[in-house]
Amino acid sequence: MSSGGANEYDVPLNLVALIDVLTNLLFFLMVGFVAQEVQVKNADRIQLPTSSTKAEIELSVAVAITADEILIDHVPVARVVNGQIDAPKEGEKIVPIYDRLNTLRAARQAETAGLSKDDDVVFLLADKTAPFTLLAPVMKTAAMAGYPNFRFAVVKE
Amino acid sequence: MSAFGGSAKRAFGGGSSVFGSEGSDDISVDLNLTPLMDVMSNILFFLMASFGAAVISFVAVSVPVQSDSPGAPPKADSVMVNLRVMPDEYRLSISNELVEQERLDAHRKVLPKVNGKYDNEKLKALLYQIKLDFPASDTLMIVPSETTVYEEIIRIMDAAREHTEGGKRIRVLPKVVVADLVKAEPAE
Hints:
The structure holds two protein chains of two kinds. Chain A has a seven-stranded mixed sheet. A two-stranded antiparallel sheet of chain A has the order 6-7. In chain A, strand 3 and strand 4 (75-81) form a beta hairpin. Helices cover 35% and strands 25% of the residues of chain A. Chain A is of the alpha/beta class. By secondary structure, chain B is of the alpha/beta class. Chain B has helices at residues 34-53, 101-106, 120-133, 150-161; strands spanning 9-11, 26-28, 56-62, 80-86, 89-95, 109-112, 139-143, 162-165, 168-171, 175-178. In chain B, the strands form three sheets. Chain B has a five-stranded mixed sheet with strand order 6-5-4-7-10. In chain B, helix 3 (120-133) packs across helix 4 (150-161). The longest helix of chain B is centred in the first third of the chain and has 20 residues, at 34-53. Chain B starts with 8 loop residues before the first strand and ends in a 10-residue tail after the last strand. The chains are: A alpha/beta, B alpha/beta. The interface between A and B is large, with 57 and 43 residues.
C-alpha cells in the first residue's frame, strides 16, 4: 500500500513478524541469563579458571569458596582465615558444612521423593588460586555428607 | 495506511486523532513501532554480548568413596592412571594387576616443570599414548600436593579429557578422581 506524489513512495514495512522474533530471542536469552545467575551469584568474588570444556551448566547444590568464607547455596557457613577453614571439626569433617549439606540433601530428597540425578553432586565455585589444602577438606566433608561427585565451575575458553 | 499491512480500525466516535486519520466512524491506528524496535534491539545486543563474554561451565570430578561391595573385575586393556602433582613436577604411573610390570613401567614418567610451568602438552601426549595402549582406560586419579591450586587441577583435566587428531576428537580419560594422600603421623 503506498501513496505519494510523483517522486515519493511511502513503503509500509510489516514489522510485526520481526518483533515476534526479537521478543522470543529476548525471552530465551533472559531466561538463560537468570538460570546462570542462580548458579554464579557469588562468582563476583571469585575469579574462575578457564577451560576447554563444552559442558552445559546443570543445577545442583552450589558451594562457593571465596577468600574469606564458604557459602552453600549463597548462605555463609564457615569463615576462611589465612587460607584455612575456621569452623568446628570432627576429625576431617567440617561440622557446619556437613550439617548444611545434609539439610539440603534431605530437603531435595523430600521434594523429589527419593534420589534424583543431581542429588549427590556439588557445583563447586572456587577462585583459580585457591590451594588444594582449602579445597580438599570441603570436598571430603561433602563426600561424607553424601555428595561424592563435583562439578568444578570454570569459564568456557 | 498501517504498519500492520492492513488497516487496524476501531470506532472512537469520529474526530481527528494523533494516532491517525479517520473516516466518519472509524480511526485507522498507526502504531509507531520504531522506538520499540530500537529498545529491543539494544537489550538484545547487550544480552548477547554479555552472554558470549563469560559463559560458566563445569568439569566433572569425584572423590574416592569407600564401598563394601566388590568392584568390577579389572580388564587387561584398562589401567588406572595415577598422576601425582608435586611442587616442581608431575609423576605419572599406571596400575593394573593383570598387566605385566614391564608394560606398566614403560608408562612411568616424571615430567619436570618447564620455565616454571607444568608441562601439560607433554602430559596430554603421554595420556593419549596410555589410551592407545590400554583403550578401555577412562579414569585418571589426580593426587595434588599442598601447593597445587585449583587452576592447575583444571589444566590437568583439560589435558586428560580429549585428544584431537585430524580434526577428530577422541575421548582420552574423561573420568577424573581427585584423591588426597593421607599423611603418616609419626609414632610417639
